[in-house]
Every structure is written in structure tokens, then in C-alpha cells.
Amino acid sequence: MRVLTARDDALLVELDDLDQAVALYESLLADPVRGVGTPVPGARTLLVPFRPSAVSARDLAAELRARPLERGARTTARTVEVPVLYDGADLTEVAALLGWSTDELVRRHTGATWTVGFVGFAPGFAYLTSDDPELVVPRRSSPRTRVPAGSVALAGPYSGVYPRESPGGWQLLGRTDAPVWDVTRERPALLLPGDTVRFTSTAALSRAPVSAPPPAAVPPTSPAPPSPTPPPTAGVDHSSCCHDDPVPGSNRCGQQLGLEVVSGGAQALVQDLGRGGAEGAGVSASGALDRPSLRAANRAVGNPTDAAVIESVGGLRLRARGPQVLAVTGAAGDLVVRPGGDGPGARRDGTDGPGARRPGNGAHGVRRPRPGEPFALDDGDELRLAAPARGVRAYVAVRGGIDVPPVLGSRATDVLAGLGPDPLGSGDVLPVGAPDRGLPAAAPPPPAPAPAPGPTPDELPAPGETTELTIVLGPRDDWFDTATIDLLTGQDWLVTPRSNRIGLRLDGEALTRLPERRDTELPSEGCVTGAIQVPPDGLPVLFLADHPLTGGYPVIAAVAADQVPLAGQLPAGARVRLTIRNTPGGTP
């Protein structure tokens, strides 16, 4: 066993094989360590996150080294039967690679006992290993851009079932109608680490494979893809409005109370502090990229700090349905509130008529709220967020919180996994929950809270400026020589426009592996948010909140936990200088 630093709040345990990794994973589930989060199994590693305030890295490493590495009985492990129609596009080619007939390949695939080692790549995608050492084939030399949901495949020593349509480079043997991923179930993933799987041959499927709605390709500046969560309530035309008294739960037009999205701008997503505890099913936490700003916005309006808010990249326009109290933090840009139908001269399209009130001409004139401070909206008032000059993401909290249905315990949108609410667009209406602690929805704004830790809006990164981020070397810094480590920290990296919520793509002088590592393939292993992965082209990718749970490229370092929110506010065109907090090659 080798215990490596993955970040200042995570260790990566390197083991001899997958069996030992699963044994340690099961041991931590059966007998948890105080302060340790949900571990993430890899091909022969286990990522172990922890709270340094509860347990030190040194004490945790000692506890891990003392754990037995033999698998015992686990009450939550199951045997799952997966029916397969063996008609895959690569069935004949794989049989030829192995020197077998297709019938022999099917016999060996169904006759083997398969065990779930770990879940990664996508939610519900289980990596299965077998007791047949000859069932090993290479990946396809040219990956497919589209692999159908339910495809049963082989690659290396693994077999797997694609939970939804996605790109992929595995060899396709057949397909199944087994629902391997369903967020409506108590156990969304059909296959979890430690489970035993038996494939059975069938002449026909009982129904077509059902795919979890796939995330579309996500361009760096485009909104998040669709998800299995029902979208927010669609808006209705209210170019003309009634003037009767409102019914409970509606405004004076009889419309649902809440916030109507007039425009989602460049990107607007519902976010909270993320979903934890589902890592074993291949689901990362996701959540707000700048958590201090989310907490500060919620505190300003009297919400619990984990309430759902809107994360905006700029250009967001919201209209109040009923009186609301809001606050905006993070990369807020200019905030403008225009009066609704009651404001003299105000038009329903948000423009000013001849008699519109201007700032200083009355309580119902155009207002410019200050970031971080609560402000009230009357029914029909519109809030506009300009694109920020500094930073990337603003956080809009409303008293009562955004009350969309949670998925796996969170209302956050995960753009890679396709979980959570759809990206917000024109006409969507976001329901608002009841105010916390009995605060009425339209109460006078409470006093502004104390400043939250972290950068103020004026201190956020800007294009052309250099921001310093502290990093923790590891776990794979030993794949690189001292000169490459010096190159990592000795240059200003440029944040490219290909960056998004999945990760920041950095440009600069490429990093190179040690000569003996250049052709080495790293077995998939867990990655933390803030991990700096080095792909074959040598240009680092800094993982953000929606990163894949496991990765197959070496992670040279990770941004320190307290610096991750700042990384999430780096705009394209900004420059980054990385400084080391720990010693190269250090282990707990």
C-alpha cells in the first residue's frame, strides 16, 4: 500500500490490484472513520476525502494502512443478472482477436463471474472485472461518437454497460434492456462496487433499452445540457395583466408566484452546495463553483446557507411574480431593477416609456442595488444582471430559496452528468419556497451581513490579469521530473475560451512526462475538484465542480481546497500563476 497526497483534504491510496481497492472501500463503508467522506474506488486505488478539522492526514494514513485488505461479506452487495442480446457491431472482430468463434466468446462472457470494481466515466457506468483472465481486448483504435444506451462492451480487462447514449471506445458485444441508471429509484445505479454480475444470453429484449437523457456536447460557452429533472414551470404570456385581487399562491394576474426568467443570458443554472454520498454510483458532488458567494447571497436574504440559488454567467433578466427579496453576490456586474406595471411609464417589455421614473425621482424608479445587500422586488419588477467585468459567475438568492425538485438530494445542475434542472431560459418560472424562520416574503431587507471570506467583487480575476493559485503537489507528480515541476510553477498559464464548469483548459508551454512514463497508461482513479490533470498534449486541465469522478491521465497537483472558489471565477483570457504549498514527493 502507498498513501499519496491528492489535495490538502484528500488522500489517494495505491494498492496492488482492484480486489484490494474494493476491500478497503468496503471496510471504510462498514467501519467509517470520523471526518472521512465517501471514498471513490478506482482500478487499483481509493480516493479518500476527509475534513482536516476532524482528522489529520497523518492519522488517517496510519488508519488506512492498518485496515485489512481481504474482502469480507458485505450485506449491501448483490448478485445482478443482466440479459444480453449478443448482436454487437464488434462481436465478430473481438472473437477473431481472441482466436475464438462468436459462440465461444458469448459462452465465455456469460460463463464468467463479473464483479463491480468501481463506477466512473458517467453515472451508473460500472467497470466490471471477471474471473476469466483471457477476456482481455484492446479499446477501439478509433472511438465512436455515438454508442447506444444499453450497449454491453469490453475494453482491457473490463466489461461494462453504457447507461445512456454517449461517445465511447469500447468493443461492443451486444445490448441489454436492464435499466442500469434511473434517478427515480431509491438506488439509482443498478450496479455498485462489490456487486456480482452474471450476463445471460437472450434471443430478444423485452423492450428497447432506455437511456438516461444524455447531456448534449457542451461547448465551453453554451448552456448546460438537458437533464432528467422536469423543467421549471413554463411561463405564460402576460403582455396584458388583470387587476383583480390575487388568489393564494399567485400574483395579481393569477400567475404562479416566484421568479420568471425573461432571459437566461450566457448561462443560468440552479445551484446549491451539491450532492454528496453518491460517489459510489459515479456521481460527483457538482454544486456552485464559488460556494462562499452562494452562502453570502443566502445569508443576505435570511435563507439557510445551502438553499438553491441561480448561478449566472451574465445577461440574466428576472421578473418578480409577487413581492420577493433578493441578493446578488460573486461576479455581479451592474445590477438594474426596473419597475413593473405599477411604475409610471414602465412597459411590460422592460423598456422605459415617456413618463418612466428615473433614479432619485421616486421609490418606483429605476434602481441599482449594491452587490451583497438584500433588496426588494414588487410584483412585475425586473432585475437585470450585466456581464461582469471581473470574475465569471454571479449568485442570485431569493428569500425562501429556489424550490425546484431535488435529484439525489440536491437541486444543482451537473452539466456533465445531465443531472438536475435544465438550464434556465426565457419563460421559465422558478418556484420560491417559504421563507425560513417565519420571515414574510416581503419583509424589509435585513441588515447587510458581515463580508464572507473570499475575494470581493473588485478582487475577482479579470482577463489579462494574473491570479495566483496555491497548489498541493500529487498524487502523480512523480511522473514528472523537477524541471517539469519548475515549468508548472514558473510560467503564467492562459485560461482558454474552451473552459467551462467541467474544467479550465490552460495554455502555455507543454508539460512532459518522464521518459519511462510516456507510454504508460494510468488505470482510472478518483480525482478531486481542483485536480490538475495532464493529458498527452501536455496542456493542463484544472477540474471544476462538474468534472468526471474518475480520470485516466496523471494528476500532477491540485488547487488547495480554499482556493477552488477563486479558480471557479477565472474568466477566459485571465492568466494563472501556480505556487506550491507542500514538498514534491511528500506523503502523509
UniProtKB/TrEMBL annotation:
Key words, A-Z: ATP-binding, Hydrolase, Nucleotide-binding
Database matches in Pfam families: CT_A_B, CT_C_D
Region annotated Disordered, chain positions: 206-243, 334-379, 427-464
Biased composition (Pro residues): 211-233, 442-460
Residue span, Carboxyltransferase domain: 1-191, 280-583
Example of a GO MF term: hydrolase activity
Domain of life the protein comes from: Bacteria
Cited InterPro entries: CT_A_B, CT_C_D, Cyclophilin-like_dom_sf, PxpC
Protein name: KipI family sensor histidine kinase inhibitor
